[in-house]
Predict the structure.
Amino acid sequence: QVQLVESGGGLVQAGGSLRLSCAASGRTFSSYAMGWFRQAPGKEREFVTAISWGGSSTYYADSVKGRFTIPRDNAKLTVYLQMNSLKPEDTDVYYCAAGLRAGTTRLTEYLYWGQGTQVTVSS
């Protein structure tokens, strides 16, 4: 069992940066691939980025490639979402998730989810 808690959301101006954190409980954190998803009201949750359990492989949605990164620190049981050059269309609730298959974009392949954190980008 893994519990995930996101933090770091907030309000930022377009062009700014924000770093989200996802803290995990459980010593098996390093066994899981991690992902970030986002969801706007009335829309489906969409894949943003993912990282393999060891951190050697990363995957990005085209919409965030070159602007977002997903570092992880297994010693701290934490995965981050570093968001740069933010745009108003990045406004969403962001969720982290843990799964066994690295890089998958399918929500159903992630076993554990955090509660989400709101990111709002003003123009």
